[in-house]
Amino acid sequence: MDYSFNNRELSWLSFNRRVLKQAEDRNVPLLSRLQFLGIFSSNLDEFFKVRVANLMRMSRQGGQKPSGKGAELPPRQLLAEISHRMEHAQRIFDDTYRQVISEIEAEGIVMVDESSLSARQTDFCREYFSSVVAPRLAPIILRKSARMPYLSDDTPYLAIEMQGGALKSARYAVVGIPVSDACPRFVVLPPAAGQTQVIMLDDIVRSMIDDIFFMFDYGSIAIHSFRIVRDAELTLDDDVSKSMADRIAEGVKERRYGLPVGLTYDRHMPAEMLEMLRSKLHIRSRDMLSPSGRYQMMRDLTRFPTIRPDLIYPPVRPIRHRRLPPSGSVLQSVSRADILLNFPYYTFQHVVDMLREAAVDPRVESIRMTLYRTARHSKVVNALINAARNGKHVEAVVELKARFDEERNVENTDLLQNEGVHVVYTIDDLKVHAKAILIERREGTASRGYAYVGTGNFNEQTAGIYCDFGLMTADKRIIDDIRTLFRFLSSSHRRYKYRHLLVSPFHMRDELNAMIDNEMHNARRGRRAYIFAKCNSLTDEKIIRRLYAASRAGVEVRLIVRGACCLRPGVEGMSERIRAVSIVDKYLEHARLYIFCNRGQERVFIGSADLMSRNLDRRVEVCAPIFDRRIAARLHHVFDIGWSDNIKACDLSDQERNPPVAGAGDGTYRRSQTALEEYYKDLNEI
């Protein structure tokens, strides 16, 4: 086993443990702590559906070769370790949930269940069940000789055992909790004793269980929650006569019936009931079983009603960039100088305004852009449709294989095509993850290009909580390469050369290697040399080995990595000059920023690519150079603010404990996201 690296899956679990730490932190507002519990649960769902499912496929195929990235273990051994760590984290989750609920109760918000309802509340629940819940309910009676009907992995369930009375033997049933926008998981009850009381939808169903199964004459009934997790692998039909959109739609439909990879259940569930579920769901390995508390699918905690706004982080109030006034032309401002946006501190409306302006400007001839994940009722998609209606040539490169957003992207494809937008599908084995816009405008006798290159999705909803960079530019050096990028995407995927952009899967890796080697060369000659990087994940072993070599050569390496980090910093003889931290706070750190010293003439890049093999070798990614020295200096300062965080940052040299970064030693403390809010406000006032 190679102990030069952290295992990717275990490192990711360490990241999710950092999310859970936010729920444990009493300095975080109470309702925000509930939201972090929901984020932890949602993250774990996706991890199970993707990473654990992949390991189980490998295990079923008899694979004993090491799996994952770094500190590699055979699949079965790694699955056992994952199961052990997840069970430990689940216990912390349950304890934290109980603690937060008790603290919320002290603030006058009380969670109740079906056993503690007043007569008035019982009447309310009965009426609510009858009018809202019952029409969406579909109880399933289980029979020994029959197969288990299909159970969704997006639904929490109640397992029912009826015994005694006129029943000769135990009868089992399953009831799905019909959570939806119209039927929320948390229901605010009529007030009682001066308190705001909230009940979970699960408990409303529990309270009506006798009414649901009135036709059975039983003496006792037991109710325990569970949920199933399915393999989220998307398998595409290889029928070339079908369009990519049709193949994706069919693949998504088939994925709903993916093999079970996990069963989470109430740890108080009787052994006989658990065994019945295991048998019916064909769950063979005990590693697939995860005991938990009374409620399942706790990702819904992110939608807990905001009863007391003072008990939650205040919503972000993004500011306008001082060079982009509400009534001014975005393109005209960009024509004068590059503009850097940093969400959510700046409003994402600037990007929407850029597209809307281009849609109606009579001199704009074409708009091209990539779409990976969009908001529901997307303003971005609406702007493209409006441009097409106004006679512009509009081209959208839609990535249909964006995991868990495939259905929305297929819908976007149909919507755009129906309005005359030229939609470009990506090829099967190459995801387009780049975030780019190209606007061509007729100015005089020539066409001038305007571009946007970002680190995050064109999604106005997530832009309010994701920290991302966006560069608006009319610099010809970048424009020429962006034009080449869209030629590549819209043509036969021929290989092109790029002079300034870093573009994967072609030469981004080579360019990164060359810049790392340059820092090593300078360090060996006694010059100052450093590499500062901020990304979501660092798992590519080739890049990590090169960073180790840079450390040994004397290069200072600072890394801010939110999620999985396979690199091991601060190891004698290997990585003494490398430090790595992770920041988890109220906004999701999502930006990618790479800074190379380059003998004092810094080379600075922002873009869509993490330092992962898939980003460098199997995806279309773009990182743009920052030519404007003022913006480059600003980005360096933003990195420094993140690096100085000693409130929300954890030291990645110990991913078992995730210790907080040591204080400055002078008694000063800095929370980087708060500092950045103040920084941009001050910058706008200068």
Largest sheet: 9 strands, mixed
How many structural domains can be distinguished in the coordinates? Answer: 4
User: What is the C-level CATH assignment of the largest domain?
Assistant: Alpha Beta
Which term fits the overall shape? globular
Provide the CATH topology of the largest domain.
polyphosphate kinase like
**If you compute it from the alpha carbons, what radius of gyration comes out, rounded to the nearest whole angstrom?**
27 Å
What is the average of the pLDDT values? 91
Under CATH, the homologous superfamily of the largest domain reads Polyphosphate kinase middle domain
Q: What proportion of the residues form beta strands (DSSP E)? A: 15-25%
The second-level CATH architecture of the largest domain is: 2-Layer Sandwich
Extract low-pLDDT stretches.
none
Helix content: 25-40%
Figure out the total of helices: 18
CA distance, first residue to last residue: 55 Å
List how many beta strands DSSP finds: 26
Judged by helices, strands and strand pairing, the structural class is alpha/beta
Can you tell me about this structure?
The protein starts with 7 loop residues before the first helix and ends with a helix. The chain has 18 helices and 26 strands. The model has no long low-confidence stretch (mean pLDDT 91). The strands form four sheets. Strands 14, 18, 19, 20, 21, 23, 24, 25 and 26 form a nine-stranded mixed β-sheet that branches. α1 (8-24) runs parallel beside α3 (75-106). α11 links the parallel β11 and β12. The chain folds into four domains: 1-107, Methane Monooxygenase Hydroxylase, Chain G, domain 1 (Up-down Bundle), CATH 1.20.58.310; 109-303, Polyphosphate kinase middle domain (polyphosphate kinase like), CATH 3.30.1840.10; 330-496, 2-Layer Sandwich (Endonuclease, Chain A), CATH 3.30.870; 503-685, Endonuclease, Chain A, CATH 3.30.870.10. By secondary structure, the chain is an alpha/beta fold.
